[in-house]
Amino acid sequence: MSDASLSTALKEAYAVAPRDHMYHTLEIRHATIDPPIRVVMGGWGISAKLEAAAPANPSETVEWLAFAFSITPPDIQASGSPRMMIELENVSRIIMAAIESAMDSTTPVEVTYRIYLESGLTVGPENNPPLNLTATTVHIDQMRIKIEVGYPDMGQKKFPRRVYSAQEFPGLVI
Q: Within 13 Å, how many C-alpha atoms sit on residue 59's CB side?
């Protein structure tokens, strides 16, 4: 099954492996992390434009720091909640402290995975919309952070989400 969120250029890059370099990026957001942590896999940082619907700094060109991390992307499947594993290596104390303080909060940590092509850094990510996920589990040791991310558990949400009260809808009371 093909992924409809991937641009034609990225599909071509996967199919024929042109010389255009691919950049895998992660953006980690939380109310306690300002500005968001933005890292790019590889040996050098980049400046790249965000999509218009980005949760932070929409349509702006932002800096991505070079960082060693690995990702295991989720499988494309028709059912179930896909999970992606992220492992950040040789984490600085600043990033570790930011993620630890975010995990102490009750609000979820959000992670956005974007793919850029070297020829499209000024255009925006190639996987549009990018993959926006929520951290479900975080394991931290001295030099490594492992984050499992996925979609929020919709099974735990109230349905219907709106509560109909007599104050808002007086016609409910006879």
A: 2
